[in-house]
Write a structure and sequence with these properties.
31% of the residues lie in helices and 20% in strands. By secondary structure, it is α/β, with parallel strands linked by helices. Strands 1, 2, 6, 7, 8, 9, 18 and 19 form an 8-stranded mixed beta sheet that branches.
Length: 471
């Protein structure tokens, strides 16, 4: 994907560098480029033959506030409002210091990404956990390629692909992390980092045993993520006494079509005004909640599958340039079920017609009176947007379940991205960034904060490594 050479001199089984980065996704390359720009030599290890990981497979949304794109649409946003929303959507279970670091660094990171060649869509949407539209979209695979190309151009960064880190190594009385044991092309090598070792190895959605250990309620969910996301970084740091954050809040994302194998992304018509109904034709949740909480609610419904119900007006409010709002494209692909009446729609999706008709009528009454007496929904999403009636034929249903794209929890870190042990002390020489890090999201999730934290926390980690004294 990146064009780096991964060939090693087979006579050199020990590689020395200043910063060792484990993981070639957005967080890894953001850190590598930042450190290289500060003058450090960097080695990036990528477990897979190609770089990108879950970053490249994502929906491409990053949560930024106060940008030029927002201003061009007359959207007023700020770091303080972003901070407030992140804390609220996380139900204050997240680490305030990490949330503050995200908010303080996000706008500069946005500008840095643009300087690196990132091309953000001019369309901006409000999505999970956002009080104003702030989902800035890019081609995520291209974003990783851009950073990797910039890193390569510095002449300071070397990529070793098909290289799996298996153990962290420490080398003195202080048990400072100094290197990683690595499997590469059938050989075992040691790669050391004199400044730091950075874990940017992603989550563990591809490790069924770990998922079951921390979130057995999602055993039946769909799992989509980078093939290498097996929790290697988490387990290596765990072996050294690293503490965890947010493990109780592993959640799936609502809106994944249960049989569609062509689209890896959820469809969030609920954030444009649709309602969610179960197999009995009844609403069961406030649809404006974070789609992680919607995922929890969906998993409790019969067959863990529900339907997003919408009308023509809501369908037309989508935008095919935003993956989670590309309603027309999915209609063309046959994923929406369409009918000229609610009764006919209910027949097609095999739910009680009288129940669906009553549910929609009751919801429309709530929209008119401005109070949702059943679930308290007030907005389209979080604190943004006025509710919409479902009234204009044709009507549509989108079958939806929960999908685990990422684990959104992991290692405890401080605001400098130093990994913290179970006694509250930094593990000397060990940093972490990206999905392997816990503490930012808390109990739920804001759209764009996963890719956002990969870029933001990767940059912070790169700066921290550049300040570390060489051993």
């Amino acid at each position: 994907m990146t064009g780096f050479s991964s060939n090693l001199d087979r006579q050199d089984m020990d590689i020395r560098t200043e910063l060792l980065v484990v993981g070639g996704g957005l967080a890894g390359f953001a850190a590598a480029l930042t450190a290289a720009e500060a003058g450090l030599d960097v080695v990036v290890l990528e477990k897979q033959p190609e770089t990108g990981g879950s970053s490249a497979m994502s929906g491409g949304c990053l949560a930024f506030a106060g940008t030029d794109i927002q201003r061009s649409h007359g959207i007023e946003d700020s770091s303080d409002l972003l901070f407030k929303d992140l804390r609220e959507v996380g139900q204050f279970e997240n680490d305030e210091a990490l949330v503050r670091a995200y908010a303080d660094e996000q706008l500069a990171t946005y500008e840095w990404l643009k300087d690196c060649g990132a091309e953000f869509n001019s369309i901006i949407e409000a999505a999970s956990g956002q009080s104003v539209p702030r989902a800035h979209t890019v081609d995520p695979a291209d974003l990783v390629r851009q950073l990797a190309a910039r890193a390569k151009a510095t002449g300071k960064v070397k990529l070793i692909a098909s290289a799996r880190a298996t153990r962290l190594l420490h080398g003195n009385a202080e048990r400072r992390v100094v290197a990683a044991a690595v499997e590469h092309e059938g050989s075992c090598i040691t790669v050391s980092g004199s400044r730091a070792v950075l874990l940017a190895s992603g989550g563990f959605c591809r490790n069924a045993k770990l998922v079951h250990r921390f979130a057995p309620q999602y055993d039946a969910a769909i799992f989509i993520g980078g093939d290498g996301n097996e929790g290697d970084g988490l387990r290596m740091a765990w072996a050294l006494g690293a503490d965890f954050r947010d493990m109780a809040y592993i959640k799936g994302t609502y809106g994944k079509h249960p049989t569609d194998e062509a689209n890896q992304h959820s469809c969030l018509a609920v954030y444009k005004g649709a309602i969610a109904v179960n197999q009995n034709g009844k609403r069961y949740v406030d649809e404006s909640l974070s789609y992680k909480l919607l995922g929890d609610a969906c998993m409790l419904q019969p067959y863990s599958t529900t339907y997003q119900i919408l009308d023509q007006n809501i369908l037309e409010s989508g935008d095919n340039r935003v993956r989670i709002m590309d309603f027309e494209r999915r209609l063309d692909e046959g994923l929406f079920i369409q009918a000229d009446s609610l009764e006919a729609l209910a027949e097609k999706i095999e739910i009680p017609a009288d129940a669906l008709i009553q549910t929609v009528a009751r919801y429309n009454h709530f929209v008119d009176q401005g109070v949702d007496d059943d679930f308290g929904r007030k907005r389209l999403v979080h604190r943004h947007g006025s509710l919409r009636r479902i009234e204009r034929a044709p009507f549509y249903a989108y079958p939806s379940t929960a999908v685990v794209f990422g684990t959104y929890c992991g290692l405890c870190v401080d605001a400098s991205m130093r990994v913290i042990d179970v006694f509250g002390q930094p593990i000397s020489g060990l940093l972490a960034a990206g999905e392997v890090v816990g503490g930012l999201h808390g109990a739920a999730y804001m759209t764009g904060s996963a890719l956002g934290k990969a870029a933001i926390f990767g940059r912070i980690a790169g700066r921290t490594a550049s300040r570390e004294a060489a051993r």
